Amino acid sequence: MFGKMMMQQLTIGAAITHAERYHTSTAVVGVETDGTIARSTWGDVAKRARQLGSALTKAGMKKGDRIATMAWNNIRHLEIYFGTSGAGFVCHTINPRLFDNQLEYIVAHAADRILFVDQTFLPIIAKLRDRLPVLERVIVMSPANEEARNILPEVEFYDTFIADGDPEFDWPDFDETHSSSLCYTSGTTGNPKGVAYTHRSTLLHSMALLAADGMALGAKESVLTVVPMFHVNAWGIPYGAAMAGCKLVLPGPKLDGDSLLSLIHAEQVTFAAGVPTIWAGLLGALAKGGSEKLPLTRTIVGGAACPPSMMETFREDFGVEVIHGWGMTETSPLGLTNTLKNSQLSLPVEQQNEIRICQGRPPFGVELRLVDENGVELPDATGTGELQIRGHWIVEQYFNRDANDLVDGWFDTGDIASIDEDGFVTIRDRSKDLIKSGGEWISSVELENTAIVHPDVVDAAAIGVPHPKWNERPVVLVKLVEDTQPTEESILSLYKDKFAKWQIPDRVLFVDEIPRNATGKIVKTKLREKYGGLELA
Questions:
Q1: What is the residue-wise DSSP string for 173-238?
Q2: Final residue belonging to a domain, choices 168, 197, 226
Q3: Which of 286, 295, 415, 465 has the fewest CB atoms within 10 Å, measured from its CB?
């Protein structure tokens, strides 16, 4: 008779249990909203996560109920990650940077029953409370205080809520394909779309992060998660850190270069992850002190391409390897990381650097292909095409939608890319002309539609213009009704009540014509060529 291997469910409860048993004294450090440092351990995080899971169960939450968070990277947020999912609920992280209408839509669409919120974001919820009837309870992530009650009288408090929970609470048994967490896209084309990750997909994704060609997370590392925990689950790092037993450092709200540099030294951070604008700020802080030895050895950069000059400065001046990564909400998000192959280590530095500036290659568990405009698959290393992806942690169907969101079993990323003979991918462009500012997407179509509302505007086009800090910023070009002379301010005022501040265009330019092709589509390549050199402070 053939032998047989054990079958155990891949669940987030198992991940935090592992950290509790084998890395119980390993430090977890968090910066609170007021700047104070909170210190915990994986053992204590696990204990409080169990208390939370127990308290939620006693509060009548049922398997699969969505429990929302709106919070910075801190220890209580980490406890919620594991306490909700481990107990069979779905952890729904909400991006507080979204516009009010988007927040209202997301909470209703997810049918969130409870919201855990950092006190710094409580005014947002107080303003929207009457528009969020689905929420049964709002719990501030702090000890009880009158300031929070003055903002929203109905609030409860995290420390009080979990006090009734059982620190010995046993994680329930359920299938690994049960949903564990929920993240929404930025809503660049219509309303935001939800992506529900499973316990299985999350743990397989975490294993890829632990691999040498993923993020190489291990128990010897001190890991700083600068990427927000409300942004694709901090790229999955909290789960991977628990599985590996890393020291984990959560930076709170202050992400300026000086604050991060101080934290890197104080906690001897060896690995960090974030978007390029964050690392530009860190370089600025380093420049103040001249040559400086850092404990940091490498950083994963995603959300936008990292300027080659920044990668070179980090590597040559500070000994920090900057590693490109690529992904999206629909890919959990790890799709690519850029680590050199053995055969490339003997190449001249200049050639290695040319490889490093692309987005990287897929780990095991991810497959890629390019297709032409007709959906016909293209061979690799033969040009560019639309990038499609499939794998163990790639979305199959958006949350609460009946339609399948795949094309012949593949997910269309919306990116235009090329793949070389070694499997390295270079993202060439967005197929839908989205604008990416500070790692967040802005819809050019929505910007254009708003400008058209102005009575003196007959046509409009929005493009991204390079920016020294934010990678890109939106600029709107408008064609005016004949014999009218509106001011730039009058057009920008249209955005103030409809868009988040960071989504509002930096400039409005008045042009004689908006170039369009034979089918009526705006030819944005011409606009970028003409206005891409515009200087934005």
A1: P--TTSEEEEEE---SSSS--EEEEEHHHHHHHHHHHHSTTTT---TT-EEEE-S-TTSHHHHTHH
A2: 197
A3: 295
Any domain includes 508:
yes
**Is 401 a member of any domain?**
no
Those residues of the chain that have pLDDT short of 50 are 518-519
Residue 118's CATH number: 3.40.50.12780
Is residue 185 flagged as an active site residue?
A: yes
Residue among 42, 279, 441, 470 flagged as catalytic: 441
Is 501 catalytic? The answer is no
Q: Is 299 a catalytic residue?
A: no
Catalytic-role residue among 26, 84, 93, 185: 185
CATH at 513? 3.30.300.30
Q: Flag whether 246 is in a domain.
A: no
**pTM, full prediction:** 0.85
- For residue 289, the model assigns a pLDDT of 77
The predicted pLDDT at position 429 comes to: 65
Which one from 47, 193, 247, 436 is the annotated catalytic residue?
A: 436
One-letter identity of residue 3: G
Question: Within a domain: residue 317?
Answer: no
Could you identify the residue written with the tokens 């400039």? 507
Total domains, the chain: 2
Instruction: Look up the domain containing 147 and give its range.
Output: 14-20+32-197
Q: How many CB atoms lie within 10 A of CB 352?
A: 13
pLDDT at position 455 is 87
Say which of 20, 330, 386, 472 is annotated catalytic: 330
Q: Report d(CA 166, CA 45) in Å as an integer.
A: 14
